[in-house]
Amino acid sequence: MSLHLEAKPGEIAPTVLLPGDPLRAQWIAETFLEDVFCYNKVRGMLGYTGQYKGKPVSVQGGGMGIPSNLIYCHELITAYGVKRILRVGTAGSYQPHVQLQDIVLAMSASTDSNINANRFPNATFAPTASFELFEKAIRYAKDHDIPFKAGNILSTDVFYDDHPKYYQQWAAYGVLCAEMETAGIYTLAAKYGIEALTLLTISDSLVTKEALPQKEREASLREMMEIALAIV
Ligand code: HPA
How far, CA to CA in Å, does 27 sit from each of 37, 104, 168, 222? Predict the structure, then answer.
């Protein structure tokens, strides 16, 4: 038990898939895992453990944004001994060549959150993916002809920005897309010496203003899930 998770000791696997949406956690567990059980319903933030090809894997909803996700990641690591966190989520494209349904592997995550400014006054920390997980994901995608983009992303604190052109400065520096969690997760993983990787599918584009209908989001998640599960 921890403050926000009611799993018993040993019920959460060392490897956790972390979607934002708790119902997506349920969908992932029920679609891809066997022998699934639900270990958490606190705050409706569903968490499941099951088996993938004989290996235990958990799937935990993390909510939206760095603060919510860091509550769950902190408890998963410190109370349940989790060693590997794979965020599986969606992102908004910042680049014309990053299109709806594309897969993006986050090599690093810039942020406009103050989370690391508070940790490292007068300095910037560079939140970076686990090289081992990143390399495995890329190797799997290449070997299976799954197209992907890899690079720097932005973990932003603001979904509905006052300035519609805010993204352009990041885009000018090659940032591929925006989501709201990874810089926090990579930082916490570094702090506790565990592995973390974020895999994203593009659900909307700030360049073209298109957005994937909710129904089509699920279909585009499947290839990303294939990569995530292959590397656990
Ligand atoms: N901005 C931030 N987070 C997101 C977006 C976006 O456009 N799309 C999906 N998550």
Answer: 13, 21, 35, 11
pLDDT for 43-63, tens place per residue?
999 999 999 999 999 999 999
Average pLDDT over residues 185-200: 98
Tell me if 36 is assigned to some domain.
Answer: yes
Could you tell me if residue 168 is inside a domain? yes
- Residue 1 within a domain: no
CATH number at residue 157: 3.40.50.1580
User: Does 111 map to a domain?
Assistant: yes
69 DSSP β-pair partners: none
Question: Token match 């934002």: residue?
Answer: 20
Structural domain tally of the chain? 1
The encoded tokens of residue 40 equal: 């958490």
Interval between CA 5 and ligand 1 midpoint (Å): 26
The verdict on the CB of residue 90 being under 6 Å from ligand 1 is yes
Q: Percent of the chain scored above 70 by pLDDT? A: 100
Range of the domain at 190: 15-230
Q: Which of 114-118, 153-157, 189-193 has the lowest mean pLDDT?
A: 114-118
Q: Establish whether 162 is a catalytic residue.
A: no
Q: 203: Cβ below 6 Å to ligand 1?
A: yes
Model pTM score: 0.97
Q: How far is the CA of 24 from the centre of ligand 1 (A)?
A: 16
d(CA 34, CA 212): 29
Q: Which ligand 1 atom is the nearest neighbour of the CA of 204?
A: 8
